Amino acid sequence: MKGIITALMVSYDQDGNLNEKGLREIIRYNVDVCKVDGLYVNGSTGENFMISTEEKKEIFRITKDEVKGQVPLIAQVGSVNLREAIDLAKYATDLGYDALSAVTPFYYKFNFNEIKHYYNSIINAVDNKMIIYSIPFLTGVNMSLDQFAELFENEKIIGVKFTAGDFYLLERMRKKFPEKLIYGGFDEMLLPATVLGIDGAIGSTFNVNGQRARQIFELGKQGKIEEAREIQHVTNDLISEILDNGLYQTIKEMLKEKGVDAGFCREPMEKLSEERIAKARSIAKNHL
Ligand code: HMN
């Protein structure tokens, strides 16, 4: 489960209904064209926090079916509704997902004991492994090195998806937890995170830019920093245009430009204007 792992996009139709055919095409594009090392299913990029439990299960099922064992799969099951998280953990484990991940519980200001209880409750309910999903800029949950150490005392908690710019903390974690898996979360900072020794990265832009991400990661690991930096520059030109135009909507339009039925985003995310659709298409034409 190391390397470049796509935070999988999901296709929804105009009315916001799950588009199974489109989802299967996105999966195929990731595996066959972007040639990524794994898929992270029902993360932020999958619009997970805007869909129902049944839809989450349907996405887990379709993805497992379409991938046919070609790449490892990580199921993001985190939810402020702990019962839902445990239910999803059981469901994904029964399907044969290689690992689970759960976002830190958010919205309420849970104390650390509550966060620890949440992770242990999910992972101790199943025969599987857990990757903590830490994304403080969206959840407001910042954990210290000592708190990560306490969570990692449970041997079933095998790693962390570190979506943060605090590279001092990243370096401290690498030193303190050499045996745990650490994944970078910001695609625009893939090279510095690679230099600090991450095991892999999980990102949204890998849905379209997976091949460049792999080059950055592999060159960085080999110490070929100048070459890796050039590719990170090109990548960040792409990412900054995507972010300016609307992250998930733009990636979907770029996939459509590549012939993939990527659909639309789930409301309340807005639909792009004609002008922004044209911009997204031109980003794909110019950068992919
Ligand atoms: C997920 O859960 O879908 C992703 O792993 C999240 C991932 O860290 C992305 N973060 C968000 O979308 C908030 C990044 O790939 C991000 O989209 C990218 O670095 C552009 O900023």
From TrEMBL:
Aceneuramate binds at residues 44-45, 163, 185, 187-188, 204. GO terms for biological process: carbohydrate metabolic process; N-acetylneuraminate catabolic process. Its main location: cytoplasm. Pathway: Amino-sugar metabolism; N-acetylneuraminate degradation; D-fructose 6-phosphate from N-acetylneuraminate: step 1/5. GO terms for molecular function: N-acetylneuraminate lyase activity. One of its GO terms (cellular component) is cytosol. It holds the Pfam family DHDPS. Keywords: Carbohydrate metabolism, Cytoplasm, Lyase, Schiff base. CDD domains: NAL (cd00954). The active site is at 133 (proton donor), 133 (proton donor/acceptor), 161 (schiff-base intermediate with substrate). Pyruvate binds at residues 45, 202. Its EC number is 4.1.3.3. PANTHER family: N-ACETYLNEURAMINATE LYASE. Belongs to the DapA family. NanA subfamily. Catalyzes the reversible aldol cleavage of N-acetylneuraminic acid (sialic acid; Neu5Ac) to form pyruvate and N-acetylmannosamine (ManNAc) via a Schiff base intermediate. Homotetramer. This is N-acetylneuraminate lyase.
